[in-house]
Amino acid sequence: MIRILGTIFAGLLGLAFGSFLNVCLSRWPEGESVVKPRSHCRHCSHTLAWWENVPLASWLVLRGRCRGCGAWIGWRYPLVEAAVGGLWAWQAWQYMGYQSLDILVFNLRSPSTLVSLIGWVVFQWLLVALAVLDAENLWLPDWLTLPGIALGSICTVLKTRRQMELSALSRPQLTSGVLDCLFAILAAAALILLIRWVYWVVRHREGIGYGDAKLMALLAAWLGLPQALLAFAVGVVLGALAAVVLLAVPAGRRGPESWASSKLPLGTFLCVGGIVSCLWGQPIVAAYLRWGGF
């Protein structure tokens, strides 16, 4: 029962933070404050009543349209809210497991455990934010990716330290874990930079931005190198599928440019790959290693 109630609470909290994220995603690209003015329609400036701000429910009641001018609100709003709510509910379900209340309270008394838990839900929130920002604006801001890398590194160190306390690991093993995290971050970023350089040599134009390299470093800081590479593989497959659709449906291109010069949001695909890796990465990597005979 505790596990179910905790999961429901985390999901509802995720819906609320997803709703706030929608405000950020609408205002950040315009350089606007996320605090003032109050939530309003982007078309007619109609100020939303409290019941028009209820995550998911308000969009469904209003049928996706503004009550003031009838303008289409868009699918992004319910999808972002559902994504954050679902990810946070999954995180709570996984963390709580079948532990008793006493064990949960004992674990949460550890600062490293509490920081790591909060860090993971922030990481998932960041993935959704970066996916949408890149899809809508081809923009991966440094003030999201760089702090995300730092927070991921801190949480990885705290996790390794917690394992050291529980398993009596030696301090050299803790140092080795920190170095592994640093290597994963550098290797993941270097992979994107290498692809960027090869593309420049072949086509004499930029094909991948530096923001994608920082995003890969972010994924490696949180997930480790194997799962970051899994996220990259999933992102590449999704990007290739999107390119095929773009080739088959010219109307899907950004403006009048040709298919060869159309820009695809690689960061969005990497974030989706990161979510897949976050949810199922460990069993997928383990299955691959077994299949490869490692």
List keywords for this structure.
294 residues; mainly alpha; globular; 2 domains
Describe the structure.
- There is one protein chain.
- This protein is mostly helical and 294 residues long.
- It folds into two domains: 1-109, no CATH class; 135-294, no CATH class.
- The chain has ten helices and no strands.
- The protein has helices at residues 2-27, 57-61, 76-96, 101-108, 111-137, 142-167, 171-203, 210-223, 225-248, 266-291.
- The longest helix has 33 residues, at 171-203.
- It is globular, with a radius of gyration of 21 Å.
- It starts with a helix and ends with a helix.
- The mean pLDDT is 88.
What's the total helix number? 10
* Beta-strand percentage range: under 5%
Largest sheet: none
In whole angstroms, the N-to-C terminal distance is: 40 Å
CA-based gyration radius: 21 Å
Number of domains: 2
Low-confidence stretches: none
What value does the average pLDDT take? 88
Give the tally of β-strands.
Answer: 0
Q: Helix amount, in percent?
A: over 70%
Task: Provide a short characterization of the protein structure.
The chain is an all-alpha fold.
List the helices and strands and how they pair.
Layout: H1 2-27, H2 57-61, H3 76-96, H4 101-108, H5 111-137, H6 142-167, H7 171-203, H8 210-223, H9 225-248, H10 266-291
Helix pairs in contact: 1-3, 1-5, 3-5, 5-6, 5-10, 6-7, 6-8, 7-8, 8-9, 8-10, 9-10
